[in-house]
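Ticket #396: bound-state structure for S-adenosylmethionine.
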Amino acid sequence: MNISSFLKTIHPFPARMAPEIAIRRLKHLEKDTLILDPMLGSGTTLKVAGMTGLRGIGFDVDPMALLISSVWNRPVNINKVMRIAEQVLRQAHEMQDAPYLPWIDYDPETLAFVNFWFAKEQADDLRKLSSLISLMSCPESDVLKVALSRLIITKQRGASLGRDISHSRPHRVSNVNDFQVLPEFAKSVRRICKILSFNPGSHLISIHEGSAKHMDSISDQSIDYIMTSPPYFTAVDYFRGHRLALIWLGYTLSSLRLLRDKSIGLNRIPTKPLDDALIQELFQGVSHIANLRPKVQSALQRYSMDLLEISQEFFRVLKVKGKMTVVIADSYSSGLLISNTKIFKNAAKLAGFHLEEVEERPIIATRRYLPPPNSSGGNRLGNRMKTESIMTFTRK
Ligand SMILES: C[S@@+](CC[C@H](N)C(=O)[O-])C[C@H]1O[C@@H](n2cnc3c(N)ncnc32)[C@H](O)[C@@H]1O
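RESOLUTION: The complex was predicted; output attached.
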């Protein structure tokens, strides 16, 4: 089976794992191998694992990552999806007025956000779809949520007034929109169903909400192989784009902020005093630290400690002599190159891992991401990450 031809994603996701990286490493593993992706994003690693006949477990803190990857990685009754989609569309067409959505209409901040990012006509139709889908509790309704989200998380024109949302760099470009939400929703459902109609191995995968720092449901030394791609320092703020769709799926902005607080890689200063000696070890061989503004320096310290904490948790759950493959790229802050790769290597070594192999690989242009617009000096095209490192470690 040529796996890569079956890896068409059901929804965009920034900084997605290149499937060929996972395929090359997973395809020779024995059938019973248990793979963990603790920061699963789009769920590509687990998709490859399932298709290869391996068992997989995944975690993430972003509700969008969890939604997309669970729909993509679980068995689904396509006929039922099509049936409930038809029913939702019929009812939406019959509705005279746009319904109230309590989590939006009783929350002035979320309501103002909706009014800023959506024109009335699209917002009214999204309200109809959202109110009908939120009443459903079957697993198939998650497919409809992904279909709705796809209308919004787009690079070009979509249901919102923004562009570049799929890259998590949303900016509003207009006050008017002629996007037809209901017919586009019907197309979106059909497209996803087509992809999901061939879905081998999905029964082998389980996906959980939770932080990679504390995967309490996973026993010590129970995982055979970890494959993941941690966020890069200040490279992508996943919630910035995803919230435009998540507010139609029952989330308020404040609830999303609480979840975002669990994300690593964002430009945030530490909330507790950090151990100086550890920071020095994590920064070993990393250039430009002294040239960073004090606030960025302390955010980088927090990021480095986060990488250490996740490495320690990966060490706890991995079997002795188990392997871990981590894909990570360096990123830019204030125009200076930050070696996420070196920091991760230092963190993994401190946690007890032995580095076995490093492979450098060019990132194709369509997968490169710019730093967030507010990171000063980091907005230049030259600052796109051009290569990524694939590092394989062994647990001692
Ligand atoms: C570089 S992306 C992963 C890309 C992924 N390999 C893919 O194929 O899409 C990093 C992911 O880490 C997640 N993340 C950030 N902080 C996390 C945490 N503390 N625990 C679990 N996941 C986290 C983000 O939500 C994001 O989905």
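RESOLUTION NOTES: The pocket of S-adenosylmethionine is lined by residues 13, 15-17, 38-39, 41-42, 44-45, 59-62, 65, 211-213, 229, 231, 238, 262-264 (CB under 6 Å).
TICKET STATUS: resolved
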